[in-house]
Recover the amino acids of this structure.
């Protein structure tokens, strides 16, 4: 893949300065990601992109099931299930996936979020056929036993303790999500709870597999060193025979009601060295037209030390130890989070006031062209870094196909982001960041336990 | 193998894969996976270098597949030269570089770099202080201009010092609430005592308060000199252009005469006998269990034996994770590493577990380290671990940041610039017998100290059955600046002695 950025940097920059006001975007064009796409008769979608830069290949299988599909009373189950996919399958013993990847210099892993579960391997490219066989095998069926199930459930409980209970602000993030929704299953964070994990059973595993792990609910993404025709042949051989079940795929139909009034919560927890405040706003789904402007708003608010929140709360006012913003773009309904951890001796009320003041500034005054360009350059550079590896390219392709419903959005979304205007940013700030649409959370040390003094 | 990225010796790799084909697939009981096809090969670019007339060594590695450039200035000293009593000085000094120069305010520096789409970081680690940036290749010149200004002309304004000091104190206070961080701070002090690698890189809240502007200015004048520095540029940039830019922004860097020498790092003094330390943090939801012992220097002839031995213990399918996570479900992950530095090093193994399993996990870590030196190793067990080690190394080099970081380490430690090309063959040369001999000689489990941070009452009785002389330190009494780890103030009368 070649890009057409001029390498005569100095001359090029001189040119850019001349035309900066007109079209700064011209200098940050992303290399196009070319891909090939097909859908098998059993419903399996396949997206592939050849890249011969390194003799490796990234294989991902995206299942369109996430923690929003956790069975009732089984929060955390989709993620617990993800761990089970590394145990025994029809033709593989437990941990055989690791033998086929780690043992030959590759890597394998998976992640679960609210909407999807993604399994991936990066291996020397001569092992591609082997891994397609293995992915087909665990799609076709699992063969997990009780001791394996219980031991892996313990691992997930330790994961819960390690990510939520042990780090100082683990519970804070967990609580922000729980308080952000009243009806939608997004109110249950992906990791679940110890109690629900304890009630999960082995039969739940089989039933979850037969409900959601089926070819018409899966997308295979392959990026790297391979021949398209050969890949197609292997896919026909190993994945096409997996049958599509006749049963319908259940989908979450719960709708999160619009927020009508501001809500406030105060939560106390052990292990809170400095108090924190967080604000969430409901925003539209990831597929919404407004998503691009909200992503740009997030970068302007919180990317880097020149961002609005860092500059105001951490640098100028010195009331916060850290400050952040995140547009959590999800399939059904999304939420935007603003957070600040107080500097020592500072109050959460001050954090809240300053976060809200920064929101108001973005509503009252349009961001400058320079600030907008900065945000767009940050987004494009980030994307370049993310797409350096085959696995990174595969993540971008899979996300476009599964969550946005169109692989080509791997290219068009970036163009869309680069065309976001200052007026659009201001418009979404006014539209969503209002009092009725906010939930405010104070996160404080347990009563009687003073925060760290020093 | 993703490792092919890093090697020219493709023959070696082919041999490895042939060996594996038999071993790997013997496990499948029924339908078996298709075997791999023939491996493919690739070359990696060679780094080139040039030293400017002021002594600055400039190294360039060109790889054009992504329009990104990573640049790094490496100063060849870091936190190991912090004067006694002032841990955190080198890190604070490096971090202040981007917070104001003679012509740019902190805000302007951040704005300029971020407007280029880039990110920057500055800080001290062991043996080095670094300022690094990553930008699109079309933006490398203006980014280098800002970076050079930060390295050469920092003003260290008092206001910026106070602001950053308070920020770091808050940051440390948050970090000290994390059991795993606390355990690793305490462990370094236990192993290295009062020698230079014994303190936390960023110091402690107390030591940060003692640092003055004069200390910072003095350290900068002594260390930040072209002849004590290396500039590395990697990614989508032609060497000719890189050298031209280096000359333009660093060629006239000629600081005034050296003000004073910095402390040379003295060799670390490991404790005379094992210590078993419990830091009692009753609100901890998990126990962080850490084992530490003396390791090796980066240039130690044992280096490759050490990292191959470690690969048997570390990684998802390494023995520690096998025993602790996969077999027993006691942790989300267990692992180990050698930190091999210029004048010394450590070996650490660690896992987080539920509080009541703290003593059991400590026992399992020790057991596996012991086994390495005592039980003979089959080559069939070694081959996949070498593959995992090589694969991980080469994935690191797939990204420009990794490529530049790796090259920087080699340059810093005085290794040849093509050291990466020898990684695969050096790993492959290590034999099972050498690993066992190395482990028996250098990883003596009875010399390993243990630190557990957690809710002590849940694991203390069992720990005391396993080990003599357990030291219990309430978290409120902890002083990381002292080798005994205890605050000097007299204990309250009601305190129970452990």
């Amino acid at each position: 893949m070649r890009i057409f950025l001029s390498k005569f940097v100095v001359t090029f920059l001189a040119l850019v300065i001349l035309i900066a006001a007109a079209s700064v975007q011209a200098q940050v064009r992303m290399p196009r990601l070319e891909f090939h796409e097909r859908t098998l008769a059993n419903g399996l979608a396949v997206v592939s992109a050849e890249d011969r830069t390194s003799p490796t290949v990234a294989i991902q299988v995206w299942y369109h099931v996430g923690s929003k599909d956790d069975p009732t009373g089984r929060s955390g189950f989709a993620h617990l299930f993800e761990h089970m996919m590394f145990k025994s399958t029809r033709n593989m013993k437990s941990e055989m996936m690791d033998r086929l990847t780690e043992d030959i210099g590759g890597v394998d892993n998976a992640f679960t979020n609210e909407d999807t579960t993604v399994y991936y391997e990066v291996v020397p490219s001569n092992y591609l056929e082997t891994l397609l066989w293995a992915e087909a095998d665990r799609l076709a069926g699992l063969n997990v036993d009780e001791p394996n199930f219980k031991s892996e459930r313990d691992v997930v409980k330790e994961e819960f303790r390690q990510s939520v209970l042990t780090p100082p602000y683990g519970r804070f993030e967990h609580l922000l999500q729980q308080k952000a929704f009243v009806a939608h299953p997004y109110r249950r964070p992906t990791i679940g709870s110890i109690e629900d994990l304890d009630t999960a059973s082995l039969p739940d595993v089989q039933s979850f597999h037969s409900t959601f792990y089926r070819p018409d609910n899966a997308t295979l993404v392959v990026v790297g060193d391979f021949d398209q025709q050969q890949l197609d042949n292997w896919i026909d051989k190993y994945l096409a025979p997996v049958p599509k079940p006749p049963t319908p795929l259940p989908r979450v139909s719960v709708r999160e009601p619009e927020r009508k009034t501001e809500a406030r919560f105060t939560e106390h927890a052990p292990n809170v060295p400095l108090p924190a405040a967080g604000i969430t706003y409901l925003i539209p789904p990831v597929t919404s037209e407004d998503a691009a402007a909200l992503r740009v708003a997030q970068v302007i608010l919180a990317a880097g030390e020149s961002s609005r929140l860092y500059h105001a709360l951490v640098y100028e006012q010195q009331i916060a130890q850290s400050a952040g913003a995140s547009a959590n773009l999800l399939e059904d309904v999304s939420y935007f989070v603003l957070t600040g951890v107080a500097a020592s001796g500072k109050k959460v009320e001050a954090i809240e006031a300053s976060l809200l003041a920064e929101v108001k500034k973005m509503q009252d005054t349009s961001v400058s062209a320079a600030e907008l360009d900065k945000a767009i350059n940050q987004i494009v550079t980030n994307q370049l870094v993310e797409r350096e590896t085959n696995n990174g390219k595969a993540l971008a392709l899979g996300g476009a196909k599964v969550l946005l419903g169109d692989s080509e959005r791997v290219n068009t979304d970036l163009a869309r982001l680069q065309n976001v205007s200052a007026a659009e940013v201001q418009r979404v700030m006014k539209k969503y960041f209002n009092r009725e649409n906010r939930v405010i959370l104070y996160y404080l040390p347990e009563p009687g336990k003073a925060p760290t003094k020093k | 193998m993703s490792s092919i990225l890093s090697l020219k010796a493709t023959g070696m790799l082919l041999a490895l894969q042939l060996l594996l084909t038999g071993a790997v697939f013997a496990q499948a009981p029924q339908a078996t996976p298709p075997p791999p096809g023939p491996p493919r090969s690739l070359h990696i670019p060679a780094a080139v270098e040039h030293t400017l007339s002021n002594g600055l060594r400039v190294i360039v590695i060109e790889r054009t597949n992504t329009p990104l450039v990573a640049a790094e200035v490496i100063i060849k000293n870091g936190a190991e030269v912090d004067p006694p009593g002032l841990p955190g000085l080198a890190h604070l000094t490096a971090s202040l570089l981007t917070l104001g120069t003679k012509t740019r305010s902190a805000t302007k520096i951040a704005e300029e770099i971020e407007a280029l789409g880039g990110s920057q970081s500055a800080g001290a680690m062991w043996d080095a202080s670094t300022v690094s940036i990553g930008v699109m290749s079309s933006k490398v010149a203006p980014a280098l201009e800002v970076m050079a200004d930060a390295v050469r002309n920092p003003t260290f304004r008092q206001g910026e010092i106070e602001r950053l000091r308070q920020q770091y104190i808050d940051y440390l206070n948050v970090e000290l609430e994390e059991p795993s961080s606390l355990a690793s701070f305490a462990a370094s002090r236990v192993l290295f005592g009062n020698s230079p690698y014994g303190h936390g890189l960023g110091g402690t809240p107390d030591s940060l308060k003692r640092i003055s502007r004069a200390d910072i200015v003095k350290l900068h004048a002594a260390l930040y000199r072209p002849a004590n520095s290396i500039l590395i540029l990697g990614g989508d940039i032609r060497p000719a252009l890189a050298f031209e830019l280096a000359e333009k922004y660093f060629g006239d860097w000629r600081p005034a005469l050296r003000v004073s020498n910095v402390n040379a790092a003295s060799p670390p003094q490991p404790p005379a006998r094992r210590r078993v330390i419990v830091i009692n943090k009753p609100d901890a939801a998990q126990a962080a269990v850490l084992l530490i012992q003396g390791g090796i220097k980066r240039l130690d002839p044992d280096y490759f034996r050490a990292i191959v031995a470690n690969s048997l213990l570390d990684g998802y399918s390494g023995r520690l994770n096998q025993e602790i996570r996969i077999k027993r479900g006691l942790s989300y992950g267990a692992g180990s590493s050698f930190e091999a530095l210029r004048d010394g090093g450590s070996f650490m193994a660690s896992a987080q577990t539920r509080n009541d399993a703290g003593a059991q996990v400590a026992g399992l870590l020790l057991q596996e380290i012991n086994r390495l030196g005592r039980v003979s190793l089959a080559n069939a067990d070694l081959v996949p671990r070498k593959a995992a080690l090589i694969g991980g190394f080469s994935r690191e080099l797939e990204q420009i940041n990794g490529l530049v970081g790796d090259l920087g380490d080699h340059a810093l430690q005085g290794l040849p610039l093509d050291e990466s090309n020898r990684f695969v063959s050096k790993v492959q040369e290590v034999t099972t017998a050498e690993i066992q001999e190395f482990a028996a000689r250098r990883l003596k489990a009875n010399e390993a100290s243990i630190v557990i941070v957690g809710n002590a009452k849940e694991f203390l009785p069992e720990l005391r059955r396993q080990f003599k002389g357990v030291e219990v330190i309430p978290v409120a009494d902890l002083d990381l600046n002292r080798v005994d780890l205890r605050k000097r103030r007299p204990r309250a009368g009601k305190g129970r002695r452990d």
About this structure: Chain B touches chain A through 99 residues (CB under 8 Å).
